[in-house]
């Protein structure tokens, strides 16, 4: 349960809101680490300068994950007792929940997180145009994602764990779950065609709200297509894929990660360049009496992959050919030497 404090008291939430927004940003960076668009900082300013605001699929994700992050952190703060005016959601405790279980325990108070997050995040949208409606819809989708991924946790009661009755409560998942869920929604985001001839007349405002009301509030919505992230575009502040790192080998890579070099480089008409670097780090540290720690220096070669322009990669290969029949080992060594210069 919770009550709404007077407006000034909202200051008590501002650190939590900031931490939540940061949480959202970090999750965005994680989810898009191996996508062409990788959640760059400039995309994250939920700008209200409408002329520069994009309204594509990525914008939709940024709004959803930010409002989800804010709601999530507020809710968690509440459960941890960080706020005087809010605690567990026990409104249903004692009621039957389903077959053989009762509500009980401490459910995370998402109602609180939802309400406060709405006050903060939705307040950034001041316009009444299609872009504002899109952002509000995606903010809401983010909050729905937090609610929709909550997990029921139960405890058994009865003689020595016989579980004749159970009490259950709802708790927040790891925020990663919310991120995964929203990434999936991002892949299936819906495009609505509202930008053409969208004025500020009552008629067009009516058309906007009608359109958005017809779409489930769980779905992400966008108005524009994404730009071609392969290409550098300074006007749009896009760096392009040249120079981007991708991953190829590794013990624990997902299919999506393993295909990152093709997605980021190959499909953008770029070649993949392998670069080796030697890492020196402290290892085999021993404690000596008293009181010193002595370590050895260990060397490890790491291989990294980067997207490069095709001509550049071809030139590198030609230089190698010109050097004649090198053994693979010495070729690697030479490559390393060349990289140093
Ligand atoms: C809420 O939690 C976040 C991190 O989980 C923390 O940084 C912040 O200070 C907390 N807010 C309050 C008011 O305790
Ligand atoms: C950059 O993007 C804008 C808007 O999509 C487009 O009009 C322009 O042609 C692009 N510039 C380049 C160099 O691709
Ligand atoms: C990574 O490896 C660990 C075990 O080492 C495994 O539990 C986990 O599911 C793996 N993660 C992925 C994404 O494959």
UniProtKB/TrEMBL annotation:
Keyword Disulfide bond tagged: yes
A Pfam family assignment: wnt
Gene3D superfamilies registered for this protein in UniProt: 3.30.2460.20
GO process annotations (BP): animal organ development; canonical Wnt signaling pathway; cell fate commitment; embryonic pattern specification; neural plate regionalization; neuron differentiation
Protein's UniProt keywords contain rRNA-binding: no
Coiled coil spans: none
Gene Ontology molecular function: cytokine activity; frizzled binding
Region (Disordered): 322-341
Gene Ontology CC: one annotated term: extracellular space
Family: Belongs to the Wnt family.
Protein name, entry field: Protein Wnt
Organism name: Gadus morhua (Atlantic cod)
